[in-house]
Structure formats: structure tokens, C-alpha cells
Recover the amino acids of this structure.
């Protein structure tokens, strides 16, 4: 019956009232996107917090591995570089130097790899719910920031209780802005890499390799002046944002010197540029992420 | 029966449309893993040449120029054979996939309930409820208010505090349904989720869907069970290999669909194809006219 009716009227005009109907799945403009992201803040925080706990469920020691991993890393670096290869020469308080290096670098490694994989590893969430996808890399970074709190406390305790003794001054508070800038830098890089990784999954394989090279260029376990004879390497290192974070923390915690304004300026520019570029790139690809 | 007359595509709709699907097409591009050859291995050079010729990518048309309008109070069953594009249609309606061509307009964000959408399996059901609700944009207070209802709807008891990886597939599906149904969606998309539950769950979910349609919402149900669709829906659409074949009352569509399947199974594929072509040709052509924001509808 209905088919006959339709055959008699082959064209139907459908008015679409844009005051009531809107396009589905269309990427909102950047400002709306940020507002939507802000509206999901409790989701981001809850996701981050519950994954700090569940991320280490499979091991017996659980959350202790957050601290144990960089500690063991530091220990192996100490054995190889400090004792065997003797890179510790000319470094005051090598243990503190090494601890700050490995602990600080670990946060960047974990945040950047986690952020870069936030789209590929959360396909089930993406398929199930409609929300601004930038919430995923953001949640990963917040999670790493949260898990970095006990790690930093342990790091400072180690530095206090291993000889030689340091001067505890107001400069220790400079850790907070340094880690905040590091957080924004990591977030931006993660958001920049996540869409790329979704399109070219092979990049995920390269990531750990790149992070390792990056670590060698961040003076984690050797003196900063090691590259003084290689002007190119020295310049790369001077503009390496993670190295700058490590340097700021070392200067203020170990050596009781105020980090230079130049260090702060370069790091701030890195952090802001990375977040701005990362956010725009991520937002522009928003419509494609569901297609996995 | 009278509801279906209201929602007929032909004639003047008496209620406002909630979803307008305007000529959407979706093409999937996937890598051809085996290079189309599974028997004797040929020389590497030949394989390389073959891949250079560009047959490494397979293009699958999941939907081609599908158009229809859904209205308030509609519950629409979507039927079709495997791989006909039903799930893709649901994903497009939910905004998870942006179609290659065409646009979907909707009165509010449709909420999709699928069986493959796993939540985070290392977390407990209770945590997943909170996470899912927050992801859909609810606040902690709203989640607290609805938490008990969701647990009741899911039919889980103390298991709600166990990690989700210990759940059976039916339990997981029920939990997902309960979470997605908690937001009071105006437009609810149900993808095969009903097939997994037991009788008690089917009853509950049916009630939930009726609630949505009674609140002037729209429900889409994908199911292979024609019984479910004639039971729960007042309208059905049939999609086959990405083509929109038929739109009508569930009884009419189910009859034609059964007839088509029967012809194909009989080996009379030509006759089946003829039915399909006739039905497609009799579909009205749909043309959308955009009314700009804030303007009154002109008749």
C-alpha cells in the first residue's frame, strides 16, 4: 500500500530547520571545542585517577612500580655510567644529579608515549561515546602528572637523605612551575603525535627509539659540559625542553642557584607553542578519529 | 498502526523530524593483506609490481546515497543481511563516522549502544558506569542520582564491583545498554544489543525504549530477528549492500525481506534482484531544503 503511494509521489521535499536540527558529528569551532572539553573536566579527572590505580593492577607491587622503575633505571645508569664509564667525573652530588635526570625524564617519556597512543589504545571508548577526543590525551597527561606526585616526593626524600646534604631553600618551590611547563609541553607533543600514530601505526614502533635518543641528548647521566666541543650538539641540548626542565630542577634543588631567565623563557615558549600547535592539529582531525 | 501513518516519508509529517539523513555515502578503504593470492608464492618482484599497480587497497562501499527522515515517537527497525551497512549507518547517525558524502542532521546528539563497544575491562562495573556517564557529559551529582537505576537496569548485583573482565558477554552488553540508556537520550541507537540479553533483560530494555519514544524521542534498532522488529518498532527500513531498499511498516518490510531472502536461497537470485530493483525504484526521491537559522518555516 505505502509503496504505491510513494510511486505516485516520486519526490519528497524535506525542509531542514537549522534552528532545531544540527549536523551530527561535525567538528565544533575551536572555542566551542575548548568549552566542551572544559565541560568534561570531571570525566578527564576521573579517567586519569582510576587509571593511576588500575594501570599497575597486573603486578604484585602495584603502584610501587611508579617509584621503583625510575629508581632501578637510575641504579643501572649509576652502575654503567657512574662506576664503569666514569661519566660522573666533575659532577657534584652525582646521585642527586642522576636521580633528578631519570625521574624527570621518565615523566616526559611516559606522558608523550601515552599521549601519542591515546587514540589508538582507546578505540573502544571512541566507538562507544561521543565526547571531544582531546579529553583522551589530556587524561593521559593528567594521569602521569598525578602519578608523578609520589614519584617527586620520593625523589626529594632520596636527595635529602643521601650525602652530601643540600641546602633546602625557597628555590625548591621552583619545581612546581618547571613541572607545570613540562606538563604542557608533553601534552602538546602527545596531541600532535596521536593523530599521526592513528594514520601511520608504524610510528609507534619508532617512538621508543626516538625517546631513547632524546634521553641521551638531555644530559641525564653525564655532565652538561660534555658536548662543549660539539657546538651543534650543545645548541640542540640548550634548546631541548626536557633538558631545560631537568636543569631547572637540578639548579634549584641541588646547587641552590636560581635558574637563568633564559632557561625559563625558552622552556615557556616550547610549552606554549607545543600546546597551541598540538591542540589545533588535534582539533582539525577530530572528525576522523571515530573511523578506526 | 496510526503512528506509522504519521511517520510515513510520503505525505506531510505531522510531527517534527528528529533525524534527517541526506544522501550519505560511506566508503571504507582497507589494505589487502594477501594481495589477492593465497596459493603458490610468486617471485617477490611480481608481488611488488602487483602492489604498485594499486590493487593493494580495497574499497568497500558500506552505504551509498542513503536518505530518510525520522520523526518524534518513531521506533525504526533496521534490517538487512550481514555486511549490508547497518552498523555503519548507526555509527554515522551517532557521529562516530563522518560520511564521505552527505550530511546527517539531528535534533540532539544520538546515543549509540553497541555490542562491540567494550568499556575499560580492568575497571569494575561501578567505575565503568561512572566513567561512561561522565564521558557522555553528566556531572558527578547526576551520576550519583542515577547510579542505582543503572545498576538495576543492568540486572547486575554484587558483580557490579568486580572488574569487567570477569563478566560474561551478556553481562557486559547489559551494562553497556544500561549506561547508554541512562542519559535520557532523545535519539537512541541500539545495535544488536538486544540479541545478547536474556528474557528479563529484553523486557527491561523494551520498556526503556518505549519510554524514549513516549517522550517524543526516536529509537533505531538493528536486529537480525524480524520478530524483535515487528514487536518493538512502528517502522522498518531495509538496507542491502549499502543501498536503501525499502521503508514502511515492519510487517510490510519483513514480508518483502523474507520473500527476497527466500528467492535468493532458492537459487533464484535473478528474481530476488528484480524485487530489490523494483522496490528501490519505487522509493521516493528526497530533496532537502535548508532553512537558515532562526527563520520560520515557509510553506
Amino acid at each position: 500500500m505505502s509503496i504505491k503511494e510513494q510511486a505516485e509521489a516520486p519526490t519528497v521535499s524535506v525542509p531542514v530547520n537549522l534552528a532545531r536540527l544540527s549536523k551530527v558529528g561535525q567538528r565544533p569551532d575551536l572555542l566551542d571545542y575548548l568549552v566542551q572539553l572544559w565541560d568534561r573536566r570531571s570525566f578527564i579527572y576521573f579517567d586519569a585517577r582510576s587509571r593511576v590505580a588500575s594501570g599497575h593492577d597486573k603486578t604484585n607491587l602495584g603502584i610501587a612500580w611508579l617509584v621503583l622503575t625510575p629508581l632501578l633505571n637510575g641504579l643501572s645508569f649509576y652502575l654503567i655510567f657512574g662506576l664503569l664509564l666514569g661519566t660522573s667525573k666533575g659532577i657534584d652530588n652525582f646521585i642527586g644529579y642522576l636521580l633528578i635526570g631519570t625521574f624527570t625524564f621518565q615523566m616526559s617519556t611516559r606522558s608523550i608515549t601515552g599521549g601519542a597512543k591515546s587514540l589508538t589504545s582507546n578505540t573502544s571508548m571512541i566507538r562507544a561515546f561521543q565526547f571531544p577526543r582531546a579529553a583522551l590525551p589530556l587524561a593521559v597527561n593528567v594521569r602521569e602528572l598525578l602519578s608523578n606526585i609520589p614519584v617527586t616526593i620520593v625523589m626529594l626524600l632520596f636527595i635529602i637523605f643521601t650525602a652530601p646534604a643540600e641546602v633546602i631553600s625557597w628555590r625548591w618551590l621552583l619545581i612546581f612551575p618547571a613541572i607545570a611547563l613540562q606538563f604542557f609541553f608533553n601534552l602538546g607533543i602527545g596531541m600532535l603525535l596521536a593523530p599521526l600514530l592513528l594514520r601511520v601505526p608504524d610510528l609507534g614502533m619508532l617512538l621508543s627509539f626516538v625517546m631513547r635518543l632524546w634521553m641521551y641528548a638531555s644530559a641525564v647521566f653525564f655532565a652538561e659540559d660534555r658536548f662543549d666541543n660539539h657546538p651543534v650538539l650543545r645548541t640542540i641540548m640548550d634548546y631541548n625542553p626536557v633538558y631545560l626542565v631537568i636543569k631547572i630542577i637540578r639548579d634549584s634543588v641541588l646547587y641552590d642557584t636560581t635558574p637563568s631567565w633564559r632557561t625559563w623563557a625558552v622552556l615557556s615558549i616550547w610549552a606554549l607553542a607545543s600546546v597551541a600547535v598540538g591542540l589545533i592539529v588535534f582539533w582539525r582531525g577530530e572528525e576522523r578519529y571515530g573511523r578506526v | 498502526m496510526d503512528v506509522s501513518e504519521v511517520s510515513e516519508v510520503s505525505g506531510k509529517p505531522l510531527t517534527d523530524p528528529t533525524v534527517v539523513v541526506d544522501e550519505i555515502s560511506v566508503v571504507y578503504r582497507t589494505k589487502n593483506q594477501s594481495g589477492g593470492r593465497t596459493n603458490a608464492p610468486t617471485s617477490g618482484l611480481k608481488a611488488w609490481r602487483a602492489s604498485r599497480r594499486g590493487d593493494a587497497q580495497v574499497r568497500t562501499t558500506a552505504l551509498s546515497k542513503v536518505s530518510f527522515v525520522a520523526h518524534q515517537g518513531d521506533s525504526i527497525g533496521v534490517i538487512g543481511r550481514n555486511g549490508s551497512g547497518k552498523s555503519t549507518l548507526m555509527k554515522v547517525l551517532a557521529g562516530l563516522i563522518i560520511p564521505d558524502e552527505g550530511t546527517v542532521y539531528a535534533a540532539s546528539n544520538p546515543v549509540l549502544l553497541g555490542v562491540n563497544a567494550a568499556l575499560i575491562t580492568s575497571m569494575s562495573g561501578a567505575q565503568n558506569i561512572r566513567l561512561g556517564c561522565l564521558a557522555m557529559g553528566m556531572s558527578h551529582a547526576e551520576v550519583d542520582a542515577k547510579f542505582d537505576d543503572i545498576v538495576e537496569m543492568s540486572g547486575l548485583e554484587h558483580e557490579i564491583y568486580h572488574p569487567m573482565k570477569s563478566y560474561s558477554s551478556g553481562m557486559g552488553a547489559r551494562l553497556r545498554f544500561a549506561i547508554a540508556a541512562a542519559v535520557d537520550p532523545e535519539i537512541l541507537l541500539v545495535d544488536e544489543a538486544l540479541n545478547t540479553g536474556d528474557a528479563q533483560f529484553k523486557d527491561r530494555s523494551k520498556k526503556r525504549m518505549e519510554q524514549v519514544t513516549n517522550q517524543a524521542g526516536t529509537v533505531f534498532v538493528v536486529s537480525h530477528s524480524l520478530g524483535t522488529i515487528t514487536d518493538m518498532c512502528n517502522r522498518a527500513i531495509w538496507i542491502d549492500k549499502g543501498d536503501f531498499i525499502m521503508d514502511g511498516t515492519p510487517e510490510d518490510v519483513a514480508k518483502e525481506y523474507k520473500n527476497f531472502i527466500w528467492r535468493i536461497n532458492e537459487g533464484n537470485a535473478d528474481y530476488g534482484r528484480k524485487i530489490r530493483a523494483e522496490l528501490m525504484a519505487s522509493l521516493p526521491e528526497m530533496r532537502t531544503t535548508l532553512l537558515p537559522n532562526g527563520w520560520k518555516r515557509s510553506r
Observations:
- Confidence is low (pLDDT under 50) at residues 1-13, 294-299 of chain B.
- The longest strand of chain B covers residues 17-31.
- DSSP finds ten helices and ten strands in chain B.
- The first helix of chain B runs from residue 2 to 6.
